[in-house]
Amino acid sequence: NKGAYPYYMLKEIDEQPAVIHRIQSAYLNKNEVQLNSNLMDKLTNASRIYIVGAGTSYHAGLVGKHLFEKIAQIPTEVVVSSEFAYDDPLIEQDAFFIFLSQSGETADSRQVLVRVNDEWKKPSLTITNVANSTLAREAEFSVTLEAGPEIAVASTKAYTAQIALEAIIATAIGRTKNFEMAQNLDIDLELSKVANAMQAVVDEKGRIEQVAVDNLSDTRNAFYIGRGLDYFVALEASLKLKEISYIQAEGFASGELKHGTIALIEKGTPVLGIITQPQTADNTRSNLQETKARGANVITIVSESLAQTEDTLIIPDVNPDFAPLVSVVVGQLMAYYATLQRGYNVDQPRNLAKSVTVE
Ligand code: F6R
């Protein structure tokens, strides 16, 4: 039931702070992580984690790679399930597979799980929003996202829920291994700060709507750019934009633009820069400047402590490792309002189904 909301997507975007709180209640007791001890043993012994997903879930996996490598210090590879299913990868002896799937029914991802079970015989965990789904049943372990049903075709709260759970799992592994960073990380507090920051963004939706109307109403294409975690959010924000507003949108690593793609920048091309990572903020700003010099219409989405007077949208600061959870909400709302403005059905975009059960 979407209640007073015109579309499920807007309701699901608004629910995200509450979803984070539900995940905290389900998996944290104050700062202690509560997860199956067998699962924790196997994860802690892994020499490499493979994260498998499609679309938005793949994008959540990219953020997960950063978290597992930084907090749990386990080398992590993220793979697009449809590519991996028929590939001939060299699988490490102590590999552990994590499947990310909102629906738990994505055929491309299931195809990989079949090989994990039958051919490679490795331990696996499915992180899904549907407790009794195929991927949940067929993996050795499963945990649920606690996001509640996601009805809109464009995935929003499942993406942020997946990242929050990856952060919790990475913290648990890092603590078991006595890594200082994980031990000092108050994951409960950090997630509470994230939920507050998300709330501040959804409370500012009028401003985001204005930016979408001013810049995305009749453009044919658009670019999201960033570096590191900001690049991963750029990929997700651009997927949201293309799937519902039909704007030809690309997410790009900002430093890569000058190696070819900058040729596409014309007078008025919208370029949305995401800046939440202190170590690359200046680099992304110079890349934005390069596009501006070629006529781009630059829009910036920037964490408060990195903001400058000319920035378009300022978002609250959180621990930079968790900033994707906040900046992506701007991208979701931008896609939502661009689509409304262009007069399309937000919840039921053309050519798409909520869960993709064919390979
Ligand atoms: C995009 C979107 C899709 C799904 C993808 C995987 O908004 O919803 O890209 O993320 O089809 O679906 P799940 O997570 O159900 O495996």
From TrEMBL:
Which residues are catalytic?
A: 354 (for fru-6p isomerization activity)
Chief place of localization: cytoplasm
Q: Name one GO biological process term.
A: carbohydrate metabolic process
A GO CC term assigned to this protein in UniProt:
cytosol
- Key word tRNA processing present: no
GO MF annotations for this entry? Answer: carbohydrate derivative binding; glutamine-fructose-6-phosphate transaminase (isomerizing) activity
Q: What is its EC number?
A: 2.6.1.16
Alphabetical keyword list = Aminotransferase, Cytoplasm, Glutamine amidotransferase, Repeat, Transferase
* Primary enzyme class: transferase
Enumerate the catalysed reactions.
D-fructose 6-phosphate + L-glutamine = D-glucosamine 6-phosphate + L-glutamate
Its function?
Catalyzes the first step in hexosamine metabolism, converting fructose-6P into glucosamine-6P using glutamine as a nitrogen source.
Give the record's subunit note: Homodimer.
Q: What is this protein called?
A: Glutamine--fructose-6-phosphate aminotransferase [isomerizing]
Which part of the full protein does this chain span, and how long is the full protein?
Answer: 246 to 604 of 604
